[in-house]
């Protein structure tokens, strides 16, 4: 049975990823950091629609200690794909951000995903093929003022994927990044409507992405036939900032 864990499954993009992967025959761990009821609801809906597959809600705070990360991974059934769709930002000047907030952004977006990959690797490489996909950002390739720490974390994911892919390619484990542009999710709701209209005007495609625009590429990367693409960052931005 194909089983993936989708971290950040309760977010706008995460939900779309779960929907697409379930339709492609994947059983899923539906992860949340806080919104347990939403994770349970997503799992229940998918279970009713795809009764031959398993959908299991799981909870892990990405600010957890190392021992908690180990305990979490040890409690999982075998998986052959991990998708990291979680992420946080803080729209602010670096000098105005608390040191604690800087730590949180780097830990949630970069440090803990890297640690989890190290813990998951022994199980992943036992499969005929396995997949890792990170959700990056166009700001990982073209840094954004007011989101310097966020941009740093996403750039770090791209370089980690590039380097780590070379370590595990011989085990048929691919590692890639899907880097969205502006997506119609709650993360972008912090911007004023006027600012969002200005962003739309800069996007050659003329609109924000929807979750399904991103989840399509995640599903494609998890396909067995995608074995020769690894270490790459794929920008899904409607032509914006590339």
Automatic annotation (TrEMBL):
Gene3D superfamilies: NAD(P)-binding Rossmann-like Domain (3.40.50.720). Transmembrane segments: none annotated. One of its GO terms (biological process) is monocarboxylic acid metabolic process. PANTHER family: 3-OXOACYL-(ACYL-CARRIER-PROTEIN) REDUCTASE, 3-OXOACYL-[ACYL-CARRIER-PROTEIN] REDUCTASE FABG. Belongs to the short-chain dehydrogenases/reductases (SDR) family. This is SDR family NAD(P)-dependent oxidoreductase. It comes from Lactobacillus helsingborgensis.
């Amino acid at each position: 049975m194909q089983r993936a864990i989708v971290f950040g499954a309760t977010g706008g993009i995460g939900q779309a990823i779960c929907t697409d992967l379930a339709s492609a025959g994947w059983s899923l761990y539906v992860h949340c950091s806080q919104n347990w009821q939403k994770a349970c609801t997503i799992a229940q809906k998918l279970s009713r629609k795809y009764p031959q597959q398993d959908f299991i809600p799981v909870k892990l705070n990405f600010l957890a200690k190392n021992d908690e990360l180990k305990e979490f991974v040890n409690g999982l059934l075998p998986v052959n794909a991990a998708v990291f769709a979680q992420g946080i930002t803080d729209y602010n000047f670096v000098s105005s951000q608390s040191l604690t907030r800087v730590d949180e952004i780097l830990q949630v977006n970069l440090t803990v995903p890297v640690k989890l990959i190290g813990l998951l690797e022994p199980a992943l490489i036992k499969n005929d093929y396995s997949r890792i996909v990170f959700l990056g950002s166009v700001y990982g390739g073209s840094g954004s003022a007011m989101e310097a720490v966020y941009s740093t974390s996403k750039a770090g994911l791209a370089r980690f994927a590039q380097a780590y892919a070379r370590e595990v390619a011989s085990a048929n484990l691919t590692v890639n990044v899907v880097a969205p542009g502006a997506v119609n999710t709650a993360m972008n709701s912090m911007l004023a409507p006027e600012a969002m209209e200005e962003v739309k005007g800069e996007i050659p495609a003329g609109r924000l992405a929807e979750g399904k625009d991103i989840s399509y590429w995640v599903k494609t990367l998890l396909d067995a036939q995608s074995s020769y693409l690894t270490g790459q960052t794929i920008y899904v931005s409607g032509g914006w900032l590339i």
